[in-house]
Design a protein that fits this description.
By secondary structure, the protein is of the alpha/beta class. It contains 27 helices and 16 strands. It is globular and about 80 Å long. The model has no long low-confidence stretch (mean pLDDT 97). It binds iron/sulfur cluster (SF4) and Broken Fe4S4 cluster.
Amino acid sequence: MSEMEFEKATVDPAARAMMVKAKKIGYLTTFDRAKAQEPRCNFGNTGICCRICMQGPCRIIPKKPGANKGICGAQDYTIVARNTVRMIAGGAAAHSDHGRHIATTVLHVAEGKAKDYKITDSAKLLKVAERIGVATAGRQINEIAHDVATAALNDFGRLDDAPCTWIETTVTEGRKRKFKDTTIMPSSINGSIAELLHQTHIGVDSDPINIIFGGLKVSLGDLDGEYLATDLSDVLFGTPQPTVSEANLGVLDPEMVNICLHGHNPLLSQMVVDVAREMQDEAKAAGAKGLKLSGICCTGNEVLMRSGISIATNFATQELAIMTGLVDAVVVDVQCIMPSLRSLAECFHTKIITTMPISKIPGSYHFEFDEEHAAASAKAIIRLAIESYKQRDPNKISLSDQKNKVVAGFSMEALLDLFAAVNPENPISVLTDAIKAGEIKGVAVFAGCNNLKGTHNENHLEIAKRMAAADVFMVGTGCASQAYAMAGLLTGEAVEAYAGPGLKAFLKRIGVKADLKAELPLIFHMGSCVDNSRTISLLTLMANELGVDTPEVPFVASAPEPMSEKAVAIGSWFVSMGVPVHIGVIAPTTGSELVHGVVTRIAEDVFGGYFIMEPDYRKGTDKLLAALDDRAWKLRIRSEARAKYAASEAK
Ligand code: SF4
Ligand code: MSK
């Protein structure tokens, strides 16, 4: 790659510097591999390649008689719909399996097993118990935890057709009716995934609409799994509160033993964080000043939110953390971990440590996670990192001076505490009143990954800056939030630099009353991928306060650089929740006009939400702002009409 190509690959200066180093040592990074994949196959790009049976692949060539259908006769719309919903199934399986793992641990804690864990946030446990109908009065915490965890595990395999508990008890009444009327309310997360794989087997469902509805049902199972993962992670490890930290490759400290925590599941990573506090002396005995933990991807977000651990980098640049020569160990759990980390680690002293039975990388160290011995595993991992530190080669070190302050830790509870500083009686009205008054335009959620079809982090940053200037209140999760953290947008300084007058006044008003140790940031970091559930509780609270259903709330979502199947699942349930969802890539749905039309237009008629596919950040921002303007305008007109009607009725 040339200098100019580095600039096109990423907007992050720390990443560019490491890409130059990679070129010097002759290592091909993910950026080189993305380039080497061009040109992409157009059948795959548009979703009309079917590999569901071994007669395939069948590729649809519309104008070629015989090839305008698959060998079995499947039309383009069937193939595109099947391919799309199978991505949702993959995403839902990943998110919900993470949730199941957490719920099982809570159950074991309640049963007196898993002794390294405890119920940290019993207030949250009681709140969840009351919401889902588990009795609390006069009962021990462990009894309540047992019933809550059992209810969560029941959502995975319920055999009757009662709705999944977490969806049933968290969305608006209007959404519940909609999900039941359209037959997409799931009863069992695992059952709906299995049913969808059956539905999309050769020779089962060829109706694209029916297939899409099957996919939406699974996406709600995904939301259910995310929601219970968030709730029960808070119960186990504590509900996040505002915290100050740092982000980008400059957080790697040359004088410390550097351990990067990477993946998604906090069960082991939070244990590493807790155990590290007691092991600083072992690092000092090895000649370091101590242990320095930092995060990559959503495990990084989990430990940032709860323990203020710094962020090293996000998805696309995970290899470049190792390229600094400063990382002594990368501890990985599940999801979004590039297999290439291992081969790159061979060029350095870095140890790659896998921890989950379903997520191994050939040639890496494997410390199988076992909740009965979690603290012992965490200690062994840290000791290996300390040994690795002793082998660090000073000649291979490249320091980065890039790091930015981060203000994060905004669970829904923390956000409501901020609003309560202005209105303790009705905190959420602080946000909805500001929208009604036109001070802020609405709310945008930024979520999702990096996708090297575009420039790393560019869409994230450019869209957020433009939305800020247009007075949009913003929350973020996943690698989107990490992009903002790396670039300094999760700070009060960013408010000064980018917020429009309305947003600035709104944040200042809350900031002064809340009297936090740090200034409020431009974007509120709500957590990891599964913590998109927190954004749904924000949407639901807003809808209930405004007296409308979710499709009427000025609320949009954007995954400016989506990559994973999990992003497809999240985007799909946001659509069912009535939210316009921008994605910064063209999804492989264009091979069928019918399916593409359904997801980008017709979905709005049924659910109120729809996909906006726009890779250009300027146009993407304009479309998101137009969607917010439209909703804010309708909200005002409707409430004026209601007030007028009520006044004339009263006469
Ligand atoms: Fe071809 Fe039909 Fe098999 Fe798909 S399911 S690979 S379209 S024969
Ligand atoms: S880690 S799913 S790249 S957000 Fe959650 Fe980042 Fe996307 Fe993985």
